[in-house]
Fold:
Amino acid sequence: MKNDESCVPSLETFSTCPQISAAPREAYLQNVIDVAKWSEEHGCRGILVYTDNSQADPWLIAQIIIQNTNRLAPLVAIQPAYMHLTPSPK
Structure:
């Protein structure tokens, strides 16, 4: 840090992806795209994508976000309860 720079750290903002229950199912993907574009236009660095049995597949939603924005990073929330564990070889 240069001597003339402020010691205040920068603040990064993140938004949240709409839940599937927030819009009619036929309009959900367009709702995600709209929120992602709005988030990027307003300076958000990333967007939280929820993981839950009642939500759309978070990895597919993350791909939709990547395809429709230039720099917005999807952050997929991982729920250990929903992860499928495979036994390790002995």
About this structure: The first strand starts at residue 14 and ends at 16. The helical segments are 28-41, 58-68.
